[in-house]
Amino acid sequence: MDLNLLKTFDAVIKSQSVNEAAEILHITAPAVSHALNRLRDHYQDPLFIRKGRGIVPTNYALELHAEIQEPLSLLLNGANLRDEFDPKASQRTFRISSHKDIDVMLVPHLIRYKQEHSPYLTVKADVEHLNEMSRQEDLVRRKVDIVLATVPLTAHGYSNELLFETELVVTASKSHPRIQDTLSTEDFSRELHVVWQTERLNTLLLESVVSEMLPNRKVAYATGSTITALALAEDTDWLCVSSRWHAEKYANAFGLNIFEVPFEAKKVPVYMTWHNSQNKDNGHQWLRNAIIESVKKI
Known about the structure:
Order of helices and strands: HHHEEHEHEHEEEHEEEHEHEHEEH
CATH class of the largest domain: Alpha Beta
Number of strands: 14
CATH superfamily of the largest domain: Periplasmic binding protein-like II
Number of domains: 3
Shape: elongated
Strand order of the largest sheet: 4-3-5-14-6
Number of helices: 11
Helix content: 40-55%
CATH topology of the largest domain: D-Maltodextrin-Binding Protein, domain 2
Structural class: alpha/beta
């Protein structure tokens, strides 16, 4: 199989236009059509059918593209192509390992940045790691390009950059029978809590950023999603500790009051981590800069 055929197929399925794919690849439209015909003969499938003024992929074409996209990206964007990255024309696929709570904050801004500066490039933020070892393995194996997490990777061979820090606050339902205007340390210790299940530094998020030893919280429910935790706080008497950003964004929708944490707590950092083998990759440099610029919009 000629690799250029699959490269053409990838361009057509992303643009859903023979002419636009030809423009992206800097070849003629008849050359694109010829490549598609060879692929149709090889796979014994029409691959694309006309719809209105454009074309749409068949189910088989969608399945094929899902199978080849990641290995094709690795082949097309190997070491020899790192210096040739053109953000306006690149069709590279970048993968980010993050957490769903960070994704809600960052991904919309990152996608808008990508659409403006590199419309044919693909950014996927669909990988989540809950432990340091799996992050390291996927960075080394190039399964992911960037890891966003609250803890940096300190092992040799990795680079970390602090993206931002976020404060923690406490939320409670506006109809809470005991907590309305103020929240004391005693209130915090007495009430039941819905907590983040994702751990940081081998402990729960709040406990990792406080200066003093806290009494064990009365955990009613644990979840890996802040939005789920806030929604549960709305319909129960449970307290929820979350970032200020999430609390302020969803407090009105969920009918929540926001309180300061009733004891000293540090801000939670969010780091961008990558393997040093990516340092000279111009495309990877673009991705890191895109994330930094997107963070400014949060």
